[in-house]
Structure formats: C-alpha cells, structure tokens
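Subject: Protein record for review, amino acid sequence with backbone structure tokens
Category: Structural biology, sequence-to-fold work with a learned token vocabulary.
Format: Residues in single-letter code; tokens as whole numbers, each standing for a residue.
Body of memo: The sequence and its backbone structure tokens, given next.
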Amino acid sequence: MMDIIVVGGGACGLTAALAAAQHGARVMLIEKSFESRSNTARSSGMIPAAGTRFQKAAGVEETPEDFANDILNKNRHKSDPAITRHMTNIIPEVVEWLVDECSVTLEFVEDFTYPGHSTYRMHAPPTSTGADLHTDLLRAAEAHDNITIMDNTAVTGVKLSDDEVAVSVDNVDASLMGKKLILATNGFGANSDMVREFTPDIASAMYFGSPGNTGEGIAWGIENGAATAYMDAYQGHNSVSTQANELISYAMVTEGGFQVNKHGQRFGTEDQGYSERSLEVLAQPDGIAWDIYDEKIHRLGLTFEKYQVAMQAAAIISAETPEALAEQLGIDAHGLTQTMTAFNAAGCGEAADEQGRALSRPLEPPYYGVKVTGALFHTQGGLVVDEVGRVLHNDGTPIPNLYAGGGTAAGVSGHGAAGYLSGNGLLTAFVYGYLAGRHAAQSIT
C-alpha cells in the first residue's frame, strides 16, 4: 500500500507529489499521458506571487494582500475572500520552494503586466513557456526516491473509506491501494457535455487545453459526497493563432497594439482581460480577429517561445503601410487605414481614443499582424476544498482521505469568464498541490 496516490501529472499533481515525498511519504503518481501535455505545459508558465525575494530584488514592494485585492476586484468579489487571501499568502513560499528545493528555473517578469494586475508579479521560465516549467517539475519528481510514476495509465474509478483509498486503473486487475488520495486531474474543458451544461457561452469555441481534462476528478468527488462551486467559471483566451495553432500573448495588444475584425474595425474595449475578451472575438464575423502592432511590440513577442513558433509557421505578417498589411492579412484595407489613423492620433495626444484607452504613443512602421480566434483554455469551477486542499461535504466537513487542487478544485475566479485574472490557474494548482501534499503526508499515522 502506498501512502499517497496522486491522480494527474500537471503542476498540481507534480507539486503535491514533491511536497508529500519531501515530508517522507511514499507517493504513487498516475498520469493518463504526459505526451498529451498538461494545461501547465500548454501555458505561458507565468506564476503570480506578491512578496517573493525575486520581486523585492527587482524593486517591487507589495504585499500578498495587494495581490488578493487585484483578484477580488477582477472577479467583483465573487470568490471566497478567505481562500483568495490564503492563496496569495502561501504562493510566495511556494515559488521560493520551487526554485530552492525543486530546481525549477524561474525568472521575475518585468517586461509587461496583464490586465488587472496592478504591478509586476509574474515568475516564469526564461522561455515564457509552461513546457519548461512542467519539464522541471517532472524531472524533480522522477529523481525523488519516494515517488513512483505510472504514465499512460487511465484511472477508471476511486473508492474511499475511513482507513484507505482504492484506485482502479486500466489493464490492472487489482485496485491500487493508498492511505490518502489527491485528485489533480484539472477540470472539464475537454468534456463537451459538461462544457455545454456549465459554461454554455464558450461551448462553440475551440478548446485549447489538454485533451485529458475530461472532468473525472470532479465526478469522483461528487460520487463521494463532495460539494461543488463556481462551475460556470472558466479561462478563455482571445488570441490563438489560427494558422500556427499557438497562443499569441495578449501583451501584443495591451502593450500598445489593438485588435480588429475583418472590416478593419476595432471592437469592444481592449483593456478587458483576455478571458472575457475571448467572447468579444468570437462575436466578430466568422469568430476571427487580428492583432495589430509594431516593431517594438514585435520584439517583446520574440521573448515568448510560442510567438517564435508562430513566426516559423509564417503566421506573423509585417508590412510598411496599413494598406499593404491589410492586403496580406485579408482584411479591409480602407477600414484598417482609418483605424490606424485614429489610433495613432490618440497615441499622439491629438484625440481621445475611440475605445477609451490611455495610449502613450502611436504605432510606427513596420506594422505587424496575426490572425487569431477565441478559445477555451480551462475551467475554473470544481470541488469545494478547505485551506489545505481537503475535499468537503456540502455541510463543510472533510471527506476522509480525499484532497483536490488545481482545476479539480473550485478556484478563485468567481463566475463566468470575466473573473479570471491571469495566473489564477497556476496559482491554485501550485498552492493546493503544495498544501495538499504536505498535509496528506503529515496526516498519515
């Protein structure tokens, strides 16, 4: 019998396994397939944390409370305030633990901020890709003597008792037995039935997360009497390249670019977060938009590995004039030229911006553009857990021996798409993984 069984090998599961193993527990981690890549691996690897030594070294002074206030302001105070503050209090410790004890390579990001973040607080791999973050976590888990990893193994069911847990897996006759179970299977973004039921406004969009996120972890919790919350919450994204099938950072827009539809016209306010902005993009003709920016912003894009991939796929187009850019992009040249003229007038301070943005400069040739669409990245609702990741009944009491985190647990994004603040997914994945693994290990008698 193992001490702890962890189901799911993304950031939450790997963090839970490492935290438990470092406290002496023998851990079995079961993953459907690392080859399909977790949501962590598909992300930009940006971990938000306020109060780390890395942030302080960069001269940024703020508290976890400041970060919590940004989360609560973004979701209109719809998330649990105590849990939200708990997340922001713990994440600085987790970030430093990842670097110091798990050999994860993280750098402090001070090139840009995402909408809703009041200052620089992101920590990411040098490539700004979650694939490197996931690789570092997996390498650390594989090297730990207390962790056994079962890859290419699908869990088909779980059974709980007061004394032990039983996990059924494909192609194994007998159940795997453990003392504690941590569910880290993310959410239900790849389960079209659940998406239509709980997040219908994004159901028609492409799904850009891991195909393994089919909601079983949430279902197993419900089968064992767990409460759920915020099941309508999700992270969308408004800037996925249709040609390269790669995420184009919304920094291409927030750092001084703009988005247009096929008529060359801007739409909605670009100061929105990219999650709720996904719905604005999908509402345009054919559900398509184009990010428009210039050389300075293009150079920022090149710091993202995914942007470099899009470049190699010839998805990033450049031209010296708006007319030439529009022709190459396949959008209305007259419309884009008019939009650029108005945008640059606002950037020069000659007129108010039509979307109400505070612009600091006009765009300068050469101009760049990329065709994008809106997508669902992951869901943010799930099982209700306490401050250490224990799954709770509807009456608030813990279900014996059951923990959950990341996308399997209810997050801190409130409801719908608009409450998502960039980094909320990795925030709850790392904090709940860390706390659940540590608590489960310390609770074993």
